[in-house]
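Late entry, written up from scratch paper. The run itself happened at the end of the previous shift, but nothing got recorded in the book at the time, so transcribing now.
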Amino acid sequence: MTNAFTNKMETKTLLKKKSYIETNDIARSPTLQTVLMVEKFIEEHSGEYKKTDLFKNLPRKVMWQTFQVIMEYLERSYKIIIEKDGVVTYI
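Output as recorded:
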């Protein structure tokens, strides 16, 4: 019984999706100022840009890896949603 339980727990652990920062060695931890800048830009331009276009039009340049971490954070905290067509919408 214990062995079956342990196997189920291991399977669930393996199936859990890893975050971008866990899978990418060069991903950077963004500063609060950068996160707020990206969030504000998305809020002001909600529904206008797809992810790549959003990245290209930010008021300040950010590394792609840092941008990915920020987007993942905003999506996991239910502040944004990425539509089926790829458009980023602020909730």
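Residues 55 and 89 are 14 Å apart (CA to CA).
(Scratch paper discarded after transcription.)
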